[in-house]
Amino acid sequence: MPCDGISEVAVNAALAMVEGAKPRSEIECALVMQMACAHTAAMAVLSRLGGAHGGGRNVAMMSTAASKLMRTYAMQAETLRRLRHGGSQYMRIEHVQISEGAQAVFGVVGARD
Question: Which residues 6+ apart lie within 8 Å of 42 measured at CB?
Answer without folding.
Answer: 66, 69, 70, 73
